[in-house]
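hey so u asked for the seq, here:
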Amino acid sequence: MISIFVTIQIKDGFADQFKAASLGDSQGSVRDEPGCFRFDILQNSEDPNRFHLYEVYQDDAALDAHRNAPHYKKWRETVQDWFDGDIQRVLMSTIFPSDGGWQKQKPHLLDW
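ran it, structure tokens below
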């Protein structure tokens, strides 16, 4: 499995709109993408205009599929003007849970 940690700074006044728009992308990711095993949206406690996304995908192909999914394209189009600076991304390999552990957790992601 691979994971990506994304940090996004949002312009003042757009945090609530960003959160609302991001829910559709995260929900669509875990619901509609078989290779997406996690998609967390986190708001920084010290800076409410800074958000972090933690995502887990089966492989590079699943990450590419995410970036081509309709919900991602809609999200990107909606939020891109709210970005304050460049997006920061860190690509990682997962250690724990195991690949099987991620796969077993997938059904529980759909219970919002």
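Residues 2-94 form a domain with the Alpha-Beta Plaits fold (CATH 3.30.70.100). The first strand starts at residue 2 and ends at 9.
lmk if thats what u needed
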